[in-house]
Amino acid sequence: MIVFEDVSITYPGQDRPVLGHVNLQIPEGELVLVVGRTGSGKTTFLRAINGLVPHFTGGMLTGRILIDGRDTATHPPRELADLVGVVPQDPMSGFVTDIVEDELAYGMECLGLAPDVMRRRVEETLDLLGLADIRHRALRTLSGGQRQRVAIGAVLSTHPKVLVLDEPTSALDPGAAEEVLAALQRLVHDLGVTVVMAEHRLERVVQYADQIVLVPGGGLPITAGAPAEMMRTAPIAPPVVELARLAGWQPLPLSVRDARRAAGSLRDLLVGQQPRLRAVTAEQITLATTTDASVRYGTRPALRHVSVSAHAGEIVALMGRNGAGKSTLLNALVGVGPEPTGSVRVNGSDPRTLSGSELVHAVGLVPQEPADLLEATTVAEECRTSDRDAAAEPGTTRALLALMAPEIEDGIHPRDLSEGQRLLLVLCIILAARPPLLLLDEPTRGLDYPTKARLATALADLADAGHAIVLATHDVELVAEIADRVVILADGEIVADGATSHVVTSSPMFAPQVAKILAPQSWLTVQQVALALDESEAAG
Amino acid sequence: MRLDARWLHPGAWWVWALGLAAAASRTTNPLLLLLIIGVAAIVVQARRPDEPWGRSFTFFVKLGIVVIVVRIAVQLLFGAAVGTTTLVELPGATLPTWLAGVRLGGDVMLESLLMALYDGLRLATILICIGAANSLASPTRLLKSVPAALYELGVSVVVALTFTPQLVADVDRLRTARRLRGRRTTGMRAIAGSAIPVLEGALERSVTLAAAMDSRGYGRRGDIPRRDRHVTSALLLGGLVTACIGVFGLVSADSPVVLGLPMLVLGTVATVIALARAGRSRVRTRYRPDPWSAPEWWVSLAGASTAVAFSVAAWLGAAGMTTSFDPPAWPELPWFAVIALLIAATPAVTAPPVPSGDSSSGSALADRGTAPVQMEVSA
Fold it and tell me: In chain B, which residues have their Cβ closer than 8 Å to the Cβ of A334?
């Protein structure tokens, strides 16, 4: 279905190709997972499939890409639209109309399908993706998962033979992600659609893949193969695979189900041991509290009577569906957004009454779009203004950045940084004022495993230094790794608040893979298991 | 008669509203003008969708009030003295003749006040009628009904319409971001500081959207010979220019007759032919175009008949169409106008009710599929 013949792609102004000498064949009806670090050329690979690269972006393409026999060199994206459907990373950015039903029909209108065919296919698509009861809704009122499904439906209605998705689940909560993946599964199994998908959250998708394409970046050759084969040696792997490598299971399990079957002996080995937890400072200094806080957007309540607190040296994870009120709670703690009823206290004072400089010294928030905070044209200038804003010693921000992301150069424009680097830069800017309370809103969205690991280490160090950290996230594996306490929000109310091991293991939706594999024991991460095995070996 | 909920063709709402506006322009009778506003308000109340544009009616009502106030203020400040009944005595001055002899201030006369009030009310009524059309007809649905040849233009307008609210949201987000860095969120420097990120964001979004539209097949051309396309464009452009000349000829009193009606007809015919040609040669089709059936006919006829009734009455000089302000007289209420306005109000019942878009908002949680099943794991 998709054939790459000795393909190299070079962007204008660069001397090295992003992708070099790619030879690849993707047969019909396969689900292909594209993995690789941020900036390795994954997106370039995906966009080359429908000719957006180089027709839209510019650049040099040598070799041949054939999609069902059509050469992308002679067919611009619009002439491939009947064959390849592309779902962009942020579905909202690709919507042309404003109503669900119209959006589903838009692609077919462009292709000039007959009205009765369109009518029938819209109904089919609505059913296939479970969108029937939101067909008349305005797109901007939809939740993240619904938007993603509409975006998939919008390209699916034209019956493409190939579906290309760029990180379809990265912004979604675990439930919504499962819903989208289930829909994709159905397309592959029932309709024989070839799906090519890039995703950082391997733990969510690797079990569904028929083939994995590893894009190593830096112009190195692309490798492809069966998932079990590729995962044996891949530098990045989901926890289930890491645990299997640790325990030496053969054949390599990719799903929790397969791993559980192999895990009997490991569970026996671990009996009687307890996971070692990060020590939290004994004296509990409360840095932030909300008491009976409620927030409304217009008439819609976003938070209802929430009472929660965060203590020094503690990492609290806020979890819950998209739209459950996580961001609203974080915003209330820094005093932005609609004014809450009830009381919000940060370090003893209401954040709304604080002046700008008092605020940054009391609490810092890394928002969902970290780039919003960046205004300067170079990293060095951004660091200088940050020192000024924080009234810190000149060079403070720069020194923090050198510690967290030593590879970032001074002269680079913040927009040219990768998503993860931008996040770390913003984190350093916020930390320049040394706020005792640090809030992060979905920090791991779109981050690859190495960057995520770097962030996790940085956050653990900060908590050890006495910062209270509250992070809103959908990433159960990150939560398992670093959070001491988990607060689950649903519909603006707190439904669970307790120690991580207790809260996440009691719900399959929020349980990390290791917990699912080793239940009923309460292990959360591969690292904990490795430590325990080392100790028992040393003892025995 | 029970009507199924559906969207009325936006063109029908516009015909109806412009009919009301045309009727308003034919009278200075304040009672009739207020009745027209009332009719517009009743229909809007009955058939307004619960969407952002649906709330624009109140904005137009406020705008109308501003228009009346401004009109009266201008009359009091600069207007020539009309009438004899002095209400309030105020000092005034007449500028010298080389400044056109404009009168400033002066006594407030009942007659000139009434003149300004009637005049302002008429203008306000016309505005409110347009506001009614605005809140009843979805702008995007109206654009869906533009001729196929103007489709590209329509898409640009739709995209611009959705971008504006996003731009506002961006400005809001960046203000929050400035607060997070401990900076001032008001003042010139704050605005200047956030202007560049907002524009950058908008540009980035346009590029993403353009890529998305391209990959979904926007701008696919069928196998139309280049010559045919050029002929169509030439015909369209020439037709529009000719029609404009025709309109100018009709309006200006002392231009030759040839420039008037004949040019207008010629231009219109050329434009229609060009649009039809372009429409035929398009690849794209339409999904569920809004039908034009009985309710559409009824709504547009209700508006048009009111316009005709008022125009004929004004042309015949029927009593009650104008209200005298010098000397002041009580406005009459002509029966034929009342009947015409009753007909104009019928769309409140005869137009189909709007489909409620939020019929499923309650199930936003339900359609999430699996509710988290409680699985007790005891350690």
Answer: 179-180
DSSP string, B5-46: P-PPPHHHHHHHHHHHHHHHHT---HHHHHHHHHHHHHHHHH
> What was the pLDDT predicted at B368?
36
Write out pLDDT tens, residues B215-225. 888 877 666 66
Select from 3.40.50.150, 3.40.50.300, 3.30.465.10, 2.70.150.10 the CATH code of A2-236: 3.40.50.300
DSSP state of A340: P
If you ran DSSP here, which 8-state letter would residue A190 be given? I
Domain boundaries, chain A: 2-236, 239-271+516-540, 286-507
Element housing A67 (H / E): strand A60-67
Q: Are A98 and B143 in contact (CB under 8 A)?
A: no
Per-residue confidence band for A120, with pLDDT thresholds at 50, 70 and 90:
very high
Residue A516: both structure tokens together? 């699912």
Q: How far is CA B2 from CA A67, A323, B13, B342, in A?
A: 53, 38, 20, 20
- pLDDT tens readout for residues B57-81: 888 999 999 999 999 998 888 777 6
Q: What percent of chain A has pLDDT over 70?
A: 99
- Going from the C-alpha of A155 to that of each of A94, A137, B186, B216, B217, the distances in angstroms are 11, 18, 43, 7, 10
ipTM tops the 0.95 cut: no
Partners of A179 on chain B (C-beta within 8 Å) are 368-369
Q: Is A507 on the interface with B (CB under 8 A)?
A: yes
Architecture of domain A286-507: 3-Layer(aba) Sandwich (3.40)
What ranges do the domains of chain B cover?
10-96+103-150+303-355, 224-280
Residue B371's pLDDT is: 34
Is A224 near chain B, with CB under 8 Å?
no
